[in-house]
Amino acid sequence: MSFRKCKATGILMSLSLCAFAQAAGPAGTSVSAGVQIGEPVSAVSIDVDLRDLPVAPAWKPGMAIKEAHKRQFFAPNRPNAALPSWIETSPDRLPELQSMWDDSAVGQLRRGQPQSRVSINNASTGVSPGDPVVDVSANYIMYGVNGSSGTSFTIYDKTGTKLAGPTTFSSLAPAGDGCRTSVSDPIILFDRLANRWFLLEMGGTSSAAKMCIYVSKTENPVSGGWWFYGFSTPALNDYPHCGVWNNAYVCTDNEGGSNVAVYAYDRANMLSGATARAQQRFATVPALAGYGFQALTPATFMGDSAHAPPASTRQVLVRHNDDEAHAGGSANTSQDYIDIYTINIDWNTPSNSAITAQPDIAITEFNSWFRDYSTFATVPQPGSTSRLDPIREVILNSLVYRNLGSYESIVGQFATNQNAARSGTVVDSGIRWFELRRTGGGNWTLQQEGTYSPGDTSTHHLLGTIATDNKGNIALGFNKTRTTSPTAYASLGYTGRMASDAAGVMTLGENMIVSGSAAETSGRWGDYYQMAVDPTDDCTFWMVGMYRPSGSWNTRIQDFKFSDCGTAPSTWSVSGTVSTSTGVGISGVTVSNGSVSTTTNSSGAYTLSSLANGSYTLTPSLGGYTFSPTSRNVTVSGANVTGQNFTGTAASNIPPTAGFGFASNGLTTTFTDASSDSDGTIASRSWNFGDGGSSTATNPSHSYASAGSYSVTLTVTDNGGASDSETKTVTVTDSGNVLQNGVTVSGLAATQGNSLNYTMQVPAGASGLTFNMSGGSGDADLYVRFGAAPTDTVYDCRPYASGNTESCPISTAQAGTYYVRIKAYSTFSGVSLTGSYTLVGNVAPNADFSSTSSGLTANFTDASSDSDGSIVSRAWNFGDGSTSTSTNPSHAYASAGTYSVSLTVTDDDGATDSVTKSVTVSSSNCVPSGTVLCNGSTVSGLSATRNNWTSTYTLVVPAGATNLSFNISGGTGDADLYVRLGAAPTTSSYLCRPYTSGNSETCSFAAPTPGTYYVRLRAYATFSGVTLTTSYTP
Question: Which of 274, 331, 476, 978 could bridge to 985 as Cys pair (CB 3.0-4.6 Å)?
């Protein structure tokens, strides 16, 4: 699905489809005049025990390091947005406050108080950067990381024992979906209000990007099952960040442009596996000038259901604003800001959804100048000129929200250069952390802030991650480097503060988890770390981050707990069953208490966990059922509550009534569904157009090949499974809506939602085929498709721009019928349409070939030519009843002899030519020569530079052979093995391509098809000294 860019034209276009960019208004005003709406997305059920899935291959030292998706840097909206460097700003005094605490007697005594229990080390995956993330539930730890075979996750129990994985995200996606292509950037969040897991990764391609989302069916991520949802995005969703809220999953990313992107997803339906209502996309918060990489960060809920966000609290999105970097001469040199926005999602009436600016929050001056405002890797390491990337542009993962009863709290952190200069190359990296608070439904205000980086100017802290426990204590994780003695390579540690401590300082000292021992040379580092709090006690922190031992980076998952957080708050469960009147359990029923929900299992049993003492109303729901009682009031008071049972009755279903209307324009008819269902909804539609064509769309358009009368049938099925059909006769005529080459059709008009349809016959040999639309008023959209009428979602070309000036150039025209559609995005008139092409005479091709023989195998080389075009197809006849359409085929004859071989070639204008030659083969044994391989052949010393191929080798495999194997091994670098039957393999066409890191790869075939196998190696990274071996059992 595409999102179109809309221009403010003075006429308010459909709010549900377009949003207009505005400058940020006064606090409390909407910065979003609407929301862009996608398409509903159906769930795909994933019912698999993850222990049964293949494990992602491990990276080993010596293998190539592959770079993950690059951070996307777009041209800044205003490149010269910075305040001149000679103008001084107020200094950041917060590091001095931290130093005073660290040096005090009390500060010395408070060090080392947190207690740790579990420490899980994870080896490098051979990708830079790792992007490690972690979250925890009552019984599981889920850890995500980038990998050479795709983004993956691993599941541990709470003692650190591995239960499943590493499993690639893409292995869970359905076959054929764009999410089978993994990009990078894992997101893992435990939804504490629903007791479920939320996973997201970047998927698809740059031209067909996807948000790939997985929502667990239970708290058990190993065998409890998942729901998959794949949402299309208009641009590659670089560097996503997500937050859990009570009414939506909200995600942000870096897409470039004049505004930042925000997405909202239908949490309620996704938790139950229902069709997710259309994603809502906001792109109207103005981007900060001067940055080519930026994104908002959404708050995510932490806590239990008894401390869910109040109904009046909307989810918050924030960013830091170093106005010396963005506001030029209007910058305030005495303070900087946190920009804060709230998002309101209305799933029933999307036009009510909006992002609203809140009052900016003034904070102490910080400095985003790290050697400049655009270079990524800037933080020094000892003994190396390579530097680490502090991700200075955004508030880092995660922004954590808590409802602490008497007040609400948000904590976050970002990078700052403690060197105040805004020129030069001196970097003194620190972490600016902050806490915002809100009481009584008022505005968010700054409670406290600090800059953390103890030590001298050669000591650097970066890549923070932060969270709070249920007492309001704050923990801060980080990396540390130091370039002077005693040196520190990229190491991992944490600090923290008690809620009762003096504001603005981390009071619990620098607690190092693991120390590094080598410099990272890739320039990529970290990107994501994560801190979470264990829901079992709401006190224990879990964090993950990278550090750099020798060889390659590793990650470490660590838990720790502050001494004053106490014992776990008492929580309880409510359980029961949902069954029919005969006692048969009903699965898939959602039981909710208003803020927490769960789903019944196959026996109809359910349990709502982690409930504090209090009164709750339980309500079951499942489409097609009524329940008795409709709800239950239950009080939790110091004990688990059982026996909260419901009886479900399948509702009697009134069948739907099918009906439709239609309007014909030439050979094209547009159908409008008028069906109804008095006691439910229409769940699906099936159209039969009477000419073999069909559709499941609501209001399809269909173009017939010829004039005549057709019997059209619509069958509708309701949500209870009942169906009804209606049949009508549709007559279409060839009314002259046919475009002639170079002849313009003018004065075209249509009302919103309606279409005009044309056809154009294009002969063989046509070139420069182009369809142009222009002029008039309103907004028309041009669609072009070869061989069939285009639809809203199926077309060869659709520019989809604002206004009426659109063009569809067809690079390689096919002979036949092109179908052209002009659809009214809004009512238009006075539009012109032209189709044109150039036709020249054609010179027939010249067929020719050469051949060589080795034993019973003949190798053929096409030497055909076409003076005014190209050869588009070949037809070989080998004289023994066998044929091929390959360019340069090999053929194994069954017996020695002389055969008449013919080649027929066809050019791009349909002309043909043939040639016949005699080929002689003998029955001598295979003799390896050059690139010809035999059974048991070995080729040593293979090499190639990055992205280049070796020579192509061939092996003839006779009928009856078994256990065919091609193997590469040894050498240095990273070679990829490609094997194909009948033709040389390419990067997109192959029979086998293991595609692992390093040079140890095998392609095996237990029962191979007889014929000629083509083998070659491609350099993922420059390699040499590789050995290729072949074998089969005759």
Answer: 978
